[in-house]
């Protein structure tokens, strides 16, 4: 049966009257007499509904009468893109924007957008349409560089456009011009996704590339020090990676590499034609380099068996008398050297904080008292922040999988992931029986989930509004552009917006997020999400 159009009238989900029949609600308690009046009936407490009564809500992002508020983010819904992007990709804190600044400050609401450019569509939703304009590339406003979208106006028989972001007009290139219908819209508006959809993927022409699109690369950096070996984390990591080699997407193009570290760093050459990988030890952890960088990465299809053999033998090689020292900071530097020519995703599986080499972290918690404990929330020093920025520059994204038994200085280490668009997973205290399935699943998802590579993201707003700040995992080198070495389908960021001047009357407030990225298939694209919202005077 087709899903119903939301809840029937009078049965608003979460309303007290409907709550007792709501699926999943706690059963009403059998109470009687005076006792009933004392106790609070949980069914009577209003709470946000997580499920509509009958299937998913259908939501069209625009209708003839304008824009309606999107369904709550914690409900099930199916979106039809009708000229505004889906709320999965971009959602504003307000669905009607106040015209005047005074009105805005009176209502004290945060002004901003939650952006998740690579979000996965739900079942029943169309994916983002791909538009190839050839060498011409997408039409962009000459003044503000906004991308063509359903809210661009065309005039003078379709030869000129007016930008909905800055109001500037410009000539439409001849090969893109089209006659207008009686309603003033282009006759081809319904055939061109960029003129009728809020979200499109433009194929990027060569002008948008500084180098050929990169191949997907996964590099595993494993802690082989005593803490990791004795807790079982090292063996679990080796076994998980071995199992996952078969699930790597595009095994004919994707490259993998592996290194281990304790008081020194061990790299493994995956040169084709060897029976087993040759181990290369880098004992100088103060001045790390990557030995024979050409063979540290191998195409999965070509080196899978060699790597599987290595991962089988690693736990036995490190079982007896593993060193207590862990040169994690130096090892990350070494892995970055290995990844500089290609970029890629670096998985760091660590059980202890760095104790030797670059970026040593002391146990700050031990010496903290009630007056200094708040300092633990800030990094001890900027070493890992700078290392993260260096990684971002070479399109290296760092994921931290931390498996300590006790305290680990996360505040100092996490800038590595934050500056590079990576993730932090913490399993503490690491227990192989409980945590190894989770470690396997988290690693698997990090490898197989849809991901955009070497991304550059920018959010534009229409006249009267400006972007003030960005919050999330990325590296920001300029006021407007964010570098995101890898942006997966789970990554979202918050963009705060400021009212600069009175919004132009008769216009909508428009927002556009553009992500220039490389697909895992090796195509350079620009994903553009546009949201145009009504402006209100009251
Ligand atoms: Zn413009």
From TrEMBL:
Entry's Gene Ontology cellular component terms: COPII vesicle coat; endoplasmic reticulum exit site
Positions of the UniProt region annotated as Disordered: 1-47
Alphabetized GO MF terms: SNARE binding; zinc ion binding
Domain called Zinc finger Sec23/Sec24-type: residue spans: 138-176
GO annotation, biological process: COPII-coated vesicle cargo loading; intracellular protein transport
Stretches with biased composition (Low complexity): 1-30
Domain Sec23/Sec24 beta-sandwich: 453-536
Record Pfam families: Sec23_BS, Sec23_trunk, zf-Sec23_Sec24
InterPro entries cross-referenced by the UniProt entry: Beta-sandwich_Sec23_24, Sec23/24_trunk_dom, SEC23_SEC24_subfamily, vWFA_dom_sf, Znf_Sec23_Sec24, Znf_Sec23_Sec24_sf
Chain ranges of the Sec23/Sec24 trunk domain: 213-446
Source taxon at top rank: Eukaryota
Gene3D superfamilies cross-referenced by the UniProt entry: von Willebrand factor, type A domain, Zn-finger domain of Sec23/24
PANTHER family in UniProt: SEC24-RELATED PROTEIN (PTHR13803), SECRETORY 24CD, ISOFORM C (PTHR13803:SF4)
Family: Belongs to the SEC23/SEC24 family. SEC24 subfamily.
Protein name listed in UniProt: Protein transport protein SEC23
Taxonomic path: Eukaryota, Viridiplantae, Prasinodermophyta, Prasinodermophyceae, Prasinodermales
């Amino acid at each position: 049966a087709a899903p119903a159009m939301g809840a029937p009238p009078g049965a608003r989900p979460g309303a007290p009257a409907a709550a007792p029949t709501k699926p999943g609600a706690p059963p009403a308690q059998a109470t009687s007499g005076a006792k009933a009046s004392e106790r609070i009936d949980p069914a009577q407490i209003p709470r946000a509904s997580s499920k509509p009564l009958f299937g998913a809500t259908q939501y069209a992002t625009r209708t003839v009468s304008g824009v309606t508020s999107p369904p709550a983010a914690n409900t099930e819904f199916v979106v039809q893109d009708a000229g505004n992007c889906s709320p999965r990709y971009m959602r504003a804190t307000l669905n009607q924007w106040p015209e005047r600044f005074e009105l805005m400050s009176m209502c004290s609401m945060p002004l901003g957008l939650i952006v998740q450019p690579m979000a996965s569509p739900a079942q029943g939703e169309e994916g983002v349409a791909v538009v190839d304009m050839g060498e011409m590339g997408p039409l962009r406003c000459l003044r503000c560089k906004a991308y063509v979208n359903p809210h661009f106006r065309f005039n003078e028989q379709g030869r000129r456009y007016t930008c909905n972001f800055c109001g500037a007009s410009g000539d439409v290139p001849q090969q893109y011009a089209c006659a207008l219908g009686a309603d003033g819209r282009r006759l081809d508006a319904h055939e061109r996704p960029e003129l009728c959809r809020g979200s499109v993927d433009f194929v990027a022409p060569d002008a948008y590339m500084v180098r050929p699109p990169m191949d997907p690369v996964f590099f595993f950096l494993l802690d082989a020090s005593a803490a990791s070996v004795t807790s079982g984390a090292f063996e679990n990591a080796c076994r998980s990676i071995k199992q996952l080699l078969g699930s790597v997407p595009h095994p004919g193009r994707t490259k993998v590499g592996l290194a281990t570290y304790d008081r020194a760093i061990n790299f493994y050459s995956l040169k084709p034609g060897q029976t087993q990988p040759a181990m290369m030890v880098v004992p100088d952890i103060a001045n790390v380099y990557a030995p024979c960088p050409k063979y540290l990465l191998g195409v999965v299809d070509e080196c899978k068996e060699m790597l599987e053999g290595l991962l089988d033998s690693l736990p036995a090689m490190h079982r007896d008398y593993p060193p207590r020292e862990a040169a994690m900071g130096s090892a990350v530097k070494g892995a970055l050297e290995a990844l500089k020519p290609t970029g890629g995703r670096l998985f760091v599986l660590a059980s202890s904080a760095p104790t030797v080499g670059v970026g040593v972290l002391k146990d700050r918690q031990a010496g903290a008292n009630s007056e200094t404990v708040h300092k633990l929330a800030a990094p001890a020093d900027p070493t890992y922040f700078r290392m993260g920025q260096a990684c971002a520059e070479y399109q290296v994204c760092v994921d931290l999988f931390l498996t300590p038994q006790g305290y680990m200085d996360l505040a100092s280490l996490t800038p590595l992931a934050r500056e590079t668009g990576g993730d932090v997973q913490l399993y503490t205290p690491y227990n192989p029986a409980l945590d190894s399935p989770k470690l396997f699943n988290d690693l698997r998802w990090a490898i197989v989930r849809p991901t955009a590579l070497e991304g550059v993201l920018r959010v534009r707003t229409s006249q009267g509004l400006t972007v003030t700040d960005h919050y999330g995992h990325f590296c920001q080198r300029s006021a407007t552009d964010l570098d995101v070495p890898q942006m997966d389908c789970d990554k979202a960021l918050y963009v705060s917006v400021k009212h600069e001047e009175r919004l132009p009357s008769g216009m909508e407030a428009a927002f556009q997020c553009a992500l220039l990225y490389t697909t895992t298939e090796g195509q350079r694209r620009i994903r553009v999400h546009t949201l145009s919202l009504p402006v209100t005077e009251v």
